[in-house]
Amino acid sequence: MIELKNILMVVQNDFVNDSRIIKEANILGRCGFNVKVLALHNKGLKEEEKFEYFIVKRIKLNTRDRLSKNKLSQIVKYMEFKKKCLQEAKKFNPDIVHCHDVYTLPIGKVIIKKLSNTKKIKLIYDSHELWSQASNNLSMPNILVKLQNNIEKNVIKKCDKVITVSDSIAQYLMKQYKLEKKPTIIRNIPYMKKEITNKSIFHEKFNIEKNKKIVLYQGAVGKGRGIENLINAMQYTKDNIVLVILGNGSMVKKYKEIANKLAVKDKVYFHSAVDPKELIDYTSSANLGMSLIFNICLSYYYSLPNKMFEYIQGEIPVLCSNYPDMKEIIQNYGVGQTVEPNDVGEIAKAINEILSKDDEYCEYKNNCKIAKEQLNWEKESNILIQLYKDIIDF
User: Fold this and answer.
1) Does residue 90 sit in the same domain as residue 163?
2) In a domain, 150, yes or no
3) Using an 8 Å Cβ cutoff, are 259 and 231 in contact?
4) For residue 45, is pLDDT > 80?
5) 173 and 283 co-located in one domain
6) Number of neighbours of residue 52 by Cβ within 10 angstroms
7) CA 269 from chain center: how many Å?
């Protein structure tokens, strides 16, 4: 057990199914910290919600329903959120403020400034992506991108610890902001799934013939995730190979239309998102997991998608984009192959090869069983625990 300290986490979302933050708050609470998460309130959600090891306070904004969604209104809403976070912080009296992503940094900064006259409060920045090179920036006015980047630049050096999700992003942040220490890498990895039941969930739900092999994409169904190219590739895969797209998102209808247009609708199945607790059972019902993220921004190029590790926990080989951090996992653990995500022919060829070469497939699958013993949250969380021990002892 660690000496009891108050940890205040700040997130700028409604804290629903945010697996990374839930896992972090949960393990810190289990270690003896008093953890509170400040989030945004949305209709239908509890203002205060008690989890087993931490509490979430969702903050109601008076300006949220009254104002439109233009840029000026967003700033007014943000200022109200910032003010109310400070009020909550004064009541909670934190020892450590843990800011998730760039937009919460000014909130963490003002909390420490206002409360530091009573005690030394530590600040942690947990960057879930490379914000200065994020996909959001492509649609944002330049002035807002500059403001966002200046916020990160001005606050990051004042943080006691910086956390991020991949080695490439850690290296980039260190070089970009001339940090003395490389940020700590804590990957978004699922819990260990000890027993794989090898159910045939998809075969049964969609009445797919037992001899057919299932290629799986799981996660948000949106642009930039290689789903359209994956559907395209099904034109060139063998007759005994089908695709299941598991998840919700704005592009489901569009992708169904594409499958119909390409005359592969009999090879492409859509399944809505499932309870995270049941996800790996669904994952393990497939034969190959796909993560073909596009290089639309540097943050994507340096990413390490959670779904890769979910596939490994489900003990199915992985076919992913040939980007540095993803490629490193594939090569180090021997759990699959990488491809150029824009090359439909290469994708189809790799799928056909992986699912037709039995010896190679068995090797990938066995390597997944070995890799999952290392690539799980139970192991990864030790890095977070050690970081907190270091910050307390400092």
Assistant:
1) yes
2) yes
3) yes
4) yes
5) no
6) 7
7) 24
Sheet architecture: strand order including 288-291:
268-271, 241-246, 213-218, 288-291, 318-321, 336-339
- Summarize pLDDT for 70-90 with one digit per residue, the tens: 666 778 888 999 999 999 999
Residue 92 domain boundaries: 6-189+377-393
Residue 194 maps to a domain = no
Q: How many beta carbons lie within 10 A of that of residue 3, not counting itself? A: 10
Contact (CB, 8 A) for 267 and 196: no
Q: Are the C-beta atoms of residues 190 and 376 closer than 8 Å to each other?
A: yes
Look at residue 118 in the predicted model and tell me its pLDDT.
78
Asked if 349 and 382 sit in the same domain, the reply is: no
Question: Residue 68's pLDDT band (boundaries 50, 70, 90)?
Answer: low
Cα-based distances in Å from 161 to 122, 262, 269, 390: 8, 50, 44, 10
The token pair at 153 is 């630049």
Residue 294 identity (one-letter amino acid): F
Q: Please tell me whether the overall predicted TM-score, pTM, comes out greater than 0.70 for this model.
A: yes
